[in-house]
Here is the input.
Amino acid sequence: MRELTYTGRNTVEWREAPDPKLQSDQEAIVVPVAATSCDVDSMILAGHGFIDPPFALGHECVGRVVETGDAVTTVAPGDLVVVPWSINCGTCDNCRAGLTAHCTAVPHMAMYGAPIGGSWGGLFSDLVRVPWADAMLVPLPAGLDPVAMASASDNWSLSWRLVAPHLKNKPGARVLVVARGSIGLYVCDIARALGASDILYVDPDPEHREIARGYGAATAETLEPFPHGFDIAVEATGRVDQLALAVKSLAPEGICESAGNHFRPGELPLLDMYLTGVTLRIARDNVRNHIPDALELAASGKVAPERVVSHVLDWEQLPDALPEKHLKPVFVRADS
Here is the structure.
């Protein structure tokens, strides 16, 4: 088989690799049918990552099961499934507590798409081995488009976690979104659907702002601190200066969720945060725990994640098209 391999700044190529084989009766082999780039993949391709190439890329896809071990009970060959980005067993103490990104059955942060916690390959591969199929794979609900939900492995389900629980606890909250990619737009869609009273989306890209307005958000190119303006802030830029502006715009006891990958250091306004009583979470998401709820919302018809998909491209275009600057390209396998 082939796996798409990141070899250097803005450069990827197909490389041959052995076809994956079942290594236990709990495993499955999956063929990706709709795979997309995570916002962090764009940063990696631009040379801002912290892992030296080469390595297999990709950690967001809907796939079709092609083979299962004898002990697998929740999926079967032919099923469409969401493949979560992190490797998790489902039975260790951390997994049972919902901390699936910190599974103790594998090295810390084991994942697809980057050689962290071992080499598990990437989801831009012709075939993918899933080590604990019952724990990891989530069947795609009938009627959901794999293209629209290609990001459920990470960005879509992460976006649900960033805002949905907070809106449940504080209905009608005011939401600030400071972003540069798909996560912020998904947050706007979810926040609107779940009853946010006001949404401000901040992004220098005019096309992104247009999509956000379609979700009912007010938009701005840049953010000036808006003291006590918002109950919830979501930062998804990877820039500490933007995170600082977001937390300075929170109302007393406001909550800031940071989904940016901060590869560079910076300073936060800690005294302002102390005086306001800010809660800040910066975390890689335990996404497997949230995928079912995020898919349930997608299936409700209250949201439109397909609007974020910028291009639908053939699988064979991956080496040429992935390094291009697209918001959310989805690569499809017509033969799968």
In short: The chain has two domains: 2-154+286-332, 155-282. The two ends are 15 Å apart (CA to CA). The chain has a mean pLDDT of 95. Residues 155-282 form a domain with the Rossmann fold fold (CATH 3.40.50.720).
